[in-house]
Structures are given as C-alpha cells and as structure tokens.
Amino acid sequence: MLEVQEIDVYYGAIHALKKLSISVEEGSIVTLIGANGAGKTTTLKTISGLLRPRSGSIKFKNQELTNVPPEKIVGLGICHVPEGRRVFPSMTVMENLEMGAYLRKDKKQIAKDLETVFARFPRLKERQKQLAGTLSGGEQQMLAIGRALMANPQLLLMDEPSMGLAPLLVKEIFEIIKDINARGTTILLVEQNANMALSIADKAYVIETGEIVLQGTAQELMNSEQVKKAYLGG
Fold first, then answer.
1. Which residues lie closer than 8 Å to 204 by C-beta, 6 or more apart?
2. Which secondary-structure segment (H or E) carries 2?
3. Separation of alpha carbons 145 and 157, rounded Å
4. Domain total of the chain
5. Do both 45 and 10 map to the same domain?
6. What is the pTM of this model?
7. Domain span at residue 148?
8. What residues form DSSP beta bridges with 58?
9. In the listed set 152, 174, 198, which residue is the last one of a domain according to the structure?
10. What is the pLDDT of residues 102-160, one digit of tens each?
C-alpha cells in the first residue's frame, strides 16, 4: 500500500533521513520505534507532504507522492495524527471534527462517520460544544484521532499517540488503535512506548539517527536482545 524507498531528507545542512526505506501493507499495523531525535516524526511528515525528500520515492497505491501537496495527500486517503495532538484550541470539539471532513462532499456518510466517532469517544460527544483548548490531554488526543478519522483515511499516520498520558489512558488509546485497524484502516505508528507498540503491531522498524537499523515482525523485534536492551528496558 505504502512504499517508501531510499528517501533522503535534510533540515538545512542536517541530513535527517538517510536512504530510509519502509513498506506498509494494506490492513496492517506497522510501527517505527527509536529514541528521541532518531527521525520518526520526520519520516511521517515526509510521507504526509509536510517535508520534501531530496531524493528517493514515496508511493501510495502506486502513485508517487513526493511532489503532491499535503492537502491532496489527505484527499488520496492518508491522514496524519501529529505529535502533540495539534487540535485547533479556539474551535469547539465539533468544529475540529468538521475540519477533518473538509475535503469531503458525502454529507450522509459524514454524518454517519461523526456518529461512529462519538460512539468510539463518548467524551467528545458530551463536550462537542466545548473549546478544544480546554480539554484534558487524553481528550485532546481522542479529538486528534477523531478529527483524522473524519477524513475517512485508508492509511492513518500516528505520531506518539500515548505521549504524556496516564497509564490507564495509554491502554485505552492502544485499544482504540487496534479497533480502528480491525475496522479496515491501515496504520503506521510512531511510538516511544516500544513495548505497547510492538504488542499491537504486525511489523516493526527500528530507526537510529535517520537510518533503519533493524526490521522484522513485531514478535521478532520483541525477542531481539538488541531491542530489549535499547528500548524495552531488558
């Protein structure tokens, strides 16, 4: 579904991603794990068009994305839940969700999808008239996920969805991710909580200083001594 091949990405003179290649199969959960500053967020931003690779190729369903603007990439079916949630704080919960569907014209299906989001996140339904900036961290994370789902994505890019959340909420967010995937959305997940990420993923990559250093099934990486030492506290 998604093929990222040998991309090089720079921030000025800094070589952030070096010949990075990953692939995401339809229907799967793929996770990218690594330390802070390893290039995880840069990878997602490059796939969603917010950054441009200097070389290499990014194909989604065989369509080249490297020169496609971000809003068109959303229209093709890729949606990004950014790190730090990035909800629109001075807009209501409802307005944030409506923004997720801004490219869509299918009013009946939008209404259905809104009901699905409210069924999945009852707290958002209760707070639909509340300003997004006044929600708790966990509620903002749910809103960021709900807003992305309103775009009806085929591929969901998720950047650190558990960051800064209490352990109980982390568990809830991961259950939600599994449920979204079970209903047919493919997921590329960037996550500091390597244990949780590997427990729900099909396939995993380890990134260090902009390069993929290990890849395999999530189970293989969970059993890898190298991964245990570096990321699983083993």
1. 30, 31, 32, 33, 197, 198, 215, 216, 217, 218, 220, 221
2. strand 2-11
3. 10
4. 2
5. yes
6. 0.91
7. 84-152
8. 4
9. 152
10. 878 888 988 998 999 999 899 899 999 999 999 988 899 899 999 999 999 999 999 99
